[in-house]
Each structure stands twice: as structure tokens, then as C-alpha cells.
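Whiteboard transcription, Tuesday session. T.W. wrote the C-alpha cells on the left side:
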């Protein structure tokens, strides 16, 4: 019985050690998030400037308040000053999560740091049609990739 108990403890220890080694070898990129989801913040500052520092290979997630029912939206494709440093992976609209007509949602962009250096991301909240209001809000993010 003692031998069986020792064997069970040994097998459990080996199993735990292999799980821990898989965790330490995890190469999932780290994601840095920048979110502005408060209308009060947007209403006070129409031209928002932020800066972050990330490691090469990391992802940058930007989420900004948006309300499609107003006819305004952020530009789908961010203007990236140096696309050899940062690449846009994805853009998506996020619903309000409410059945209330006119409830605000958000828009989210995923970027990937692909080389060391510094670049900027520029987004504008506008009415996209000809004659629509442009650049009502702007968002500029300075990104330094180490």
C-alpha cells in the first residue's frame, strides 16, 4: 500500500511539473489595451493623445466609444505612420449590448508590433459621406516598440 501511495504521489508530481513547463513556455503575445468608453471623457477632450510602450511581437488593442445611430463612426483603417513597425490586424464594431434605441457601442482595433521603433496611430470620428462632418473627435496613439 505504501508503494502504491508513493507511486501515486510520484505520478501526480510528474503531471504537475509537465503542466507548469507548458505554462512557462507559452509564447502568446502580450496585449496592451487603450480604451475610451466614457462619453464624459470624449466630450471634454475632442483631440485625444495617448502613448504606450510595447515589446516586439505584442498586440495593441484600442477600443473607442462609438454610436452608429448618429451617423458618425471611426475610420475602419487606422492611419499608421510607419507600417513596418505596427500593423493593423482587425477592426470590429461592438454593439451596445442594450435594446435601447441610440445606445452607444464601441469600435475596436487590433494591432501587432512587428519591429522596434516608434510610430503613431491616427483615428477620426466622422460622418463618412461626402459633405458629412469630419474629424469631430480624433485619437492619436504614439507607440514605441522595444
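and on the right, the sequence the group agreed on:
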Amino acid at each position: 500500500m505504501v508503494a502504491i501511495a508513493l507511486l501515486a504521489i510520484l505520478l501526480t508530481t510528474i503531471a504537475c511539473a509537465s503542466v507548469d513547463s507548458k505554462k512557462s513556455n507559452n509564447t502568446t503575445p502580450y496585449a496592451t489595451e487603450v480604451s475610451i468608453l466614457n462619453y464624459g471623457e470624449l466630450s471634454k477632450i475632442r483631440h485625444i493623445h495617448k502613448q504606450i510602450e510595447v515589446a516586439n511581437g505584442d498586440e495593441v488593442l484600442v477600443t473607442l466609444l462609438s454610436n452608429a445611430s448618429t451617423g458618425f463612426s471611426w475610420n475602419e483603417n487606422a492611419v499608421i505612420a510607419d507600417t513596418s513597425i505596427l500593423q493593423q490586424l482587425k477592426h470590429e464594431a461592438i454593439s451596445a449590448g442594450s435594446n435601447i434605441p441610440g445606445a452607444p457601442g464601441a469600435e475596436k482595433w487590433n494591432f501587432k508590433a512587428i519591429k522596434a521603433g516608434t510610430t503613431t496611430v491616427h483615428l477620426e470620428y466622422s460622418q463618412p459621406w461626402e459633405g458629412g462632418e469630419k474629424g469631430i473627435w480624433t485619437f492619436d496613439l504614439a507607440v514605441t516598440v522595444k
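Someone added at the bottom: The domain at 31-145 is CATH 2.60.40.2020 (Immunoglobulin-like).
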